[in-house]
Amino acid sequence: MNPAAAASTTGRGRPRLIERYRAFLPITDATPALSLGEGFTPLVRLDRIGAALGLANLYAKVEGQNPTGSFKDRGMVVAVSKALEAGARALICASTGNTSASAAAYGAAAGLEVVVVLPRGQIAAGKLLQAQVTGARVVAIEGNFDQALRVVRELAESASHPITLVNSVNPFRLEGQKTAAFELCDDLGRAPDVLAIPVGNAGNISAYWAGFGDYHGAGLAQSLPRMFGFQAAGAAPIVLDRRIEAPETIATAIRIGDPASWTKAVRAREESGGLIESVTDDQILAAWRDLARQEGLFCEPSSAASLAGIQRLAAENRLERDATIVCVLTGSGLKDPKTAEASVGDLLVADPTAGAVAGVLGW
Ligand code: F0G
After folding, report:
1. Among 165, 228, 159, 177, which Cα is nearest to 73's?
2. At CB < 8 A and 24+ separation, what contacts does 317-320 make?
3. Residue 201 alpha carbon, nearest atom of ligand 1
4. How many angstroms does the Cα of residue 330 sit away from the middle of ligand 1?
5. How many of the other CB atoms lie within 10 Å of CB of 1?
6. What integer pLDDT is reported at residue 7 of this predicted model?
7. pLDDT number for residue 1
8. For ligand 1, is residue 95 a contact (CB within 6 Å)?
9. Count of other CB atoms within 10 angstroms of residue 327
10. Which of left, alpha, beta for 202 (phi over 0: left; psi -120 to 50: alpha)?
């Protein structure tokens, strides 16, 4: 029997994510139960965008519906539970914003001190506030994400009191992030043919690939997808096969020049017969607008790199029409109000009468 199905029939409503997939996670009876309601995110058919591209089975996995608005919560719940189990008192991470928002929230729920180190001026406003409001101590450095990651690795190794690094170099993070692949197989009744995903520090593409492998190995999925990763053109070290010292992109979440899980991501690409390519900021913003206006899905710009890549491949005739293709939308659009604001026109303003409102609408 499917262990996921067994765990989900508790008769007490929706199970916790890590109970649902316990058979595939490093959870024991000694692991504290912690949850903010992560996982169980929607798989939405992209009918209008799919029709325009000539793709019959195009979907989005809407990870912005996790508790802190990004996929990071899947891994953070496992990493923080294991940190608690090991007696940690504090958490630390570097971040382009979402990891810090998630670490701060789960740290608050677990009663742990949280320190986050961020590239100054490069964090979307909502993400920064999430970390601050939930009580993390935030240190902004005059440097980029790659430098911030080096700093926190050093601090975690040399700290005088137990402090757990919760970046995706913490193996429990990737373990938890595998659950998105399990959900996809459970919702589709099979593995997709193509999994399209933005690539930054390269942890998520690696976690999905491990998750599909686990399900396939357990006989719960008969096939494996091809993994299609997309980096922003100004921050595409894996595509170019060299570190980028000064990565630049409007997609600040994936503004990373030296991904920690580089080798794992390349392995996922090779083993799956997939690809890792780049998309320009203009392509990312166009995909982001299409998702919002044609499908009603408001994700953050970085998330739209997955669809931007699929749009490009479709235009180049490199996709099979009937393939089941899932684009992972990694985070919520509400996190980045500045980019959103720059993309919309001025408000229509009117006096409080039906006639005046009709007038500004041109009716
Ligand atoms: N999309 C979003 C919205 C992200 O926040 C990230 C990474 C990615 C995609 C890329 O995933 O790093 O596993 O390849 N954000 C990290 C952070 C780096 O600090 O929040 P990845």
Report:
1. 177
2. 319/53, 319/55, 319/194, 320/193
3. 12
4. 8
5. 5
6. 43
7. 38
8. yes
9. 34
10. left
Asked whether 302 lines ligand 1 (CB < 6 A), one says: yes
pLDDT in the model for residue 14: 83
pLDDT tens string 291-315: 999 999 999 999 999 999 999 999 9
Tokens of 85: 């189990």
If DSSP codes are grouped into helix, strand and coil, which group holds residue 281? Answer: helix
Name the packing angle between helices 305-315 and 281-295 (round to 10°).
100
Residue with the smallest CA separation from ligand 1 atom 4 is 253
What pLDDT does 161 receive?
73
Give whole-number Cα distances, 208 to 129, 150, 199, in Å.
29, 25, 12
pLDDT at 12: 64
Task: Tell me the pLDDT tens digit for each residue of 29-56.
Answer: 999 999 999 999 999 999 999 999 999 9
- Tokens 């994510």 locate to 17
Single-letter code of the amino acid located at 328: V
Q: Is the Cβ atom of 83 under 6 angstroms away from ligand 1?
A: no
